[in-house]
Design brief:
- The structure is a single chain.
- By secondary structure, the chain is α+β, with helices and mostly antiparallel strands.
- The protein has one domain: Ribosomal Protein L22, Chain A (Alpha-Beta Complex), CATH 3.90.470.
- It contains 3 helices and 5 strands, in the order βαααββββ.
- The strands form 2 sheets. Strands 1-5-2 form a 3-stranded antiparallel β-sheet. It has a two-stranded antiparallel ribbon with strand order 3-4.
- The protein is elongated, with a radius of gyration of 17 Å.
- The N and C termini lie close together (11 Å).
């Protein structure tokens, strides 16, 4: 049995989220939460909320024990890109790409 939680269209670049995802992959839910609470990255805050949501899904929807849960999968994929322009000298315009992310977190129960 597995519990999933999704976070879609988050206004943070996927490469910034992947750094934190690599830290928690394969860890128990409590350990992953502790790691993210002490990691000074913007993605940590988002992933803490996502982890809590996945634990709540596991507990309420699938009757899983929260003590036995571990992070089986956590993946990030790029979402839609907001394209903006930055005006430059001599009538030029540079493009700014504001990237978004889709994050998926899967929790499973240890036997």
């Amino acid at each position: 049995m597995e519990a999933r939680a999704y976070l879609r269209n988050v206004r943070i670049a996927p490469r910034k989220v992947k750094v934190v995802c690599d830290l928690i992959r394969g860890k128990s839910a409590a350990e992953a939460n502790a790691i993210m609470m002490n990691t000074p990255k913007a993605a940590s805050e988002l992933l803490v909320k996502l982890l809590k949501s996945a634990v709540a899904n596991a507990e309420n929807n699938h009757n899983m024990d929260p003590e036995k849960l571990y992070v089986a999968e956590v993946s990030v994929s790029p979402g839609p890109v907001l394209k903006r322009i930055r005006l430059r000298d001599h009538g030029r315009a540079f493009r700014i790409l504001k990237r978004t992310s889709h994050i998926t977190l899967v929790l499973k129960e240890k036997e």
